[in-house]
Write a structure and sequence with these properties.
Layout: H1 8-26, E1 29-30, E2 33-34, H2 42-65, H3 70-99, H4 102-116, H5 120-126, H6 144-168, H7 172-193, H8 195-200, H9 202-220, H10 233-247, H11 260-272, H12 278-283, H13 286-293, H14 295-310, H15 318-344, H16 351-374, H17 384-391, E3 399-400, E4 403-404, E5 413-415, E6 421-427, H18 429-432, H19 435-442, E7 447-453, E8 463-467, H20 479-490, E9 496-499, H21 503-506, E10 513-517, H22 523-535, E11 539-543, H23 553-560, H24 568-574, E12 578-580, H25 581-587, H26 589-596, E13 603-606, H27 608-612, E14 613-614, E15 620-622, E16 624-625, E17 628-629, H28 639-659
Parallel strand pairs: 6-7, 6-9, 9-11, 11-13
Antiparallel strand pairs: 1-2, 3-4, 5-7, 8-10, 12-15, 14-15, 16-17
Helix pairs in contact: 1-2, 1-13, 1-14, 2-6, 2-9, 2-11, 3-4, 3-14, 3-15, 3-16, 4-5, 4-16, 5-6, 6-9, 7-9, 9-11, 10-11, 14-15, 19-28
Length: 660
Amino acid sequence: MLKLNYRQELDGLRAIAIIGVIIYHIEIFVNGSKLFPGGFLGVDIFFVISGYLITSLIIKEIIFSNSFSFKIFYFRRAKRILPALLVMIFISIFFAWIYLTPKNFLEYSNSIVSSLFFYSNYFFYFQDLVYNSEDSLLKPLLHTWSLAVEEQFYIIFPIFFFSIYKFIKKKLLTFFIVLIIICFIGAILATYSNSIFSFYSNFSRLWEVLFGSLLAILEIKNKKINFKYDKFLPVIGFILILFSYIFFDKNTTHPSYLTLIPILGTFMIIHFIRINDITYNFLTIKFFSIIGLWSYSLYLWHYPILAFARNRGKDLSEYDKVELLGVTFLISIISYYLIEKPFRKLDIKKIKIFYITVLLFSASFISFNYASQKNNGFEDRIHVFLKKLTRENLWEKFSDNTGICFDRVDNFCNINQNNKTSIFLIGDSHAETINYSLFSRLESYPFNYISANRGGCIYLPGFEKKYIKDNKVYKNCTIESKKKIDSMIDNKENSIIIIGGNFKEHFSKKLDFKYISRNKKKIVPSFKDSLFKILETNKVILVYPIPSIDFDIIKTVMNLVPKDSFKATDYLNKNKLTTKYEYYLDQNKKVLSFFDNLEHKNLYKIYPHKIFCDTNIEKVCFAHEGKNIFYSDRQHLSFIGAEKLAEKVFDLILKIDRID
């Protein structure tokens, strides 16, 4: 098989790509603003480079030898990708064992299999995992989605190209231009139909890879695009990439027509760059060349290193980030020189030994995944009281004869309908945590109980929740769904309506969603209007925001309390895990001020911070009491925490009912 001429500037371009990706994932902030919020587009640069190199290799072999060896091609790809990937997965298992909860460990072991067989892009899609979300930063192998996209291309493209080449040889350039346009339009349509699927889909990324193929075809056919000022295009290309790094962010619709900006920038650099021009001299600086050589290892290792560090339970400090960056480079350099580089030189004569070794590794990982499934994520790794907590799923605990009550958009759970007084619980997942505990206390009383909690959706009539990224409406948070809740309330006067939720997020303007009113109303005044309309004929219990903690309690306890300690209670009593009360006040400043000013004779209030926080002396919020953990993560209550809050709500309901 032919070898391509080495282009040093491509290593520099790889360096620009990987630097953007790493800075984006490590989350460096300057004066409160994220550095390179569009750095994730470095992956798209890699797609173009890959398309260019692979297509160049295939076309040149076909042209100069009039044949193509699939055996050698796939062997070269396998020895380039698999050894470092397999070693990374193997080593990551040890850290997963230490840092991942049983549930997360189970997901992780499943992701290993998806990474091995290069379908992890669809694996993470079917997990409904939004890339760039907080949860995504905790998945050690999430970054393998892009490897899967590339490998799917590498597997299919040579067969496809070799099959059609003789039929389109004379129209090769035209064919690829048309193919790029079709795939580009398809990607845009896919993004506006389902943005998460489009992000992970190989089809939606195909046009980017084919841009690289187009570069290779232009080069082979000696069809250099020329015009008077083309020498400035590499500089413009670099500016376009830098522009996308700086001005794009997680809410940018992607892939879309906007993705053309970094793609065209990459195209301009590769196609128009000339030896000794300013862009060439910059990209061939030794620093960038070396980073480019290490780029695959850096990509492989940076994400699991950061993910495991975040899985320790606390946010990363700036010092942590610098330290992790150093660790990433150290391990990546070792990986490059001891694994990646030697295997690149592996002779074709050792192909059988190579594939047998790969199969043995793969078989062991599959066996490991099977064992993980059977042992529920090896839950015996953690304390018994944590094991019980990790098995909780309060969102599935409350149901009626048609199924789980949580997250319905209609046909809400309506129990004991013949009773005169109705109790409504309306809110998001924060409200849902107390659903089962509250109903358990109320079911022996003559109340009609109605549950209408939807994930990530507070009670806000007249508003629908939309993704900022693609303007799609959340399927569980539509205006129509809220109308159905209002209709139920209107038909049951003199009810007790409990309203709760994570208001600080819903009232915020800094997240990846927005509430839109068709009448262009504002959120806070509309919430007040809706509330006072209900209060005309009903009683309302307004549950103030539940204090969130600034660490993940389960992961923190996993790492703090030694597994061999039989005195976990003593340890936790002496080392109380708390968050400053000021943290709660700062996070909820807008909500607390708004709620405090709401007054009505039928309005009652519950203050969770008075349950979980010492607001006077220590001025901290408690995550636990001994082994009794109040939270299941940073902000959702555990069953024990829900019991404490539900008790307060229950007592208030009985008090209100007696008043009536």
